[in-house]
């Protein structure tokens, strides 16, 4: 089973440098590594002295690099899309539209990147896939796509399926979703989600730090520290496991009070092309130890504690349905399924203190 690694931090905190050092470290230890970049700037070209290509290219033994180009990814998937349309619709409408004529819709970059990442992850070629998106907000949006899509499918499934448009498109949409997101779900599956835990299992995959894990990147700059803490909370909101904090260009000043639940790793400043000091200071990324829990549910007392570092009280909103809680914080919405003994119980109180939202049912 491959591991996906990503790094979350403020722009200019050095995530690309750390990603490259990580790839070098893991490749030298024998892991087959693919470093996936979605950075449109020439930062990787400069750091590696090698232009990043749109297909995986070997940089060193066991170390390959690829730069995702949205236009090319769209071109690849558009062919699959038109084939599906022709198969399931009597009068396909997109057959005369070519990918060169299409623009990239807002949010499509993340969806295309997620699909590419999935294919590399499942290819069996690599032991570790490192994703450096160049922008942490985009990275978090990318990892939130499955849960957001699930939310909309749950809410609007029945309305869509009963409409004339839905009856026409459902046979086409189901295999399309299967192609893009590698899932065999049908609309009936979503109806049964509360019984067979389909959505729960999807969230569990993202939370499994042996399969997908993130590390925060910061410098000792106060703004960078605050941003890393905010992204820590954002990662938890999309269900992404955070395993530690990497302080880039560290001078040894203490910042651990901000991240007291996480392991802290200090990296020296990179000098010219000497990567070894950084490599030696990096964590053991293959460590199987558990990550800190972001949710603690005590069924006996009916209390739920949700860890939301980096957010203020006025940024947090809580809503409830019969079997779930929805927590909105920052730009993310997180669904929390209630265990059976708590289903149907109303929220008695909710307070936000010391980075925790404490809910009593």
Write structural notes for this entry:
This is Oxyanion-translocating ATPase. Belongs to the arsA ATPase family. It comes from Atelocyanobacterium thalassa (isolate ALOHA). This protein is α/β, with parallel strands linked by helices and 361 residues long. The protein has two domains: 247 residues, P-loop containing nucleotide triphosphate hydrolases (Rossmann fold, 3-Layer(aba) Sandwich), CATH 3.40.50; 66 residues, Immunoglobulin-like. Helices cover 39% and strands 22% of the residues. The chain has eleven helices and 15 strands. Strand 14 and strand 15 form a beta hairpin. Helix 3 packs across helix 6, helix 4 crosses helix 5 and helix 5 packs antiparallel against helix 9. The two termini are 39 Å apart.
In short:
By secondary structure, this protein is of the alpha/beta class.
Key words describing this protein structure:
four-stranded antiparallel β-sheet; globular; 15 strands; alpha/beta; single chain; Immunoglobulin-like; Rossmann fold; 2 domains; eight-stranded mixed β-sheet; 361 residues; 39% helix
Shape: globular
When the domains are counted, the total is 2
- What topology, given as strand order, has the largest sheet? 3-4-2-5-1-6-7-8
Q: Give the CATH superfamily of the largest domain.
A: P-loop containing nucleotide triphosphate hydrolases
What kind of assembly state do the chains in view correspond to?
single chain
Quote the CATH topology of the largest domain.
Rossmann fold
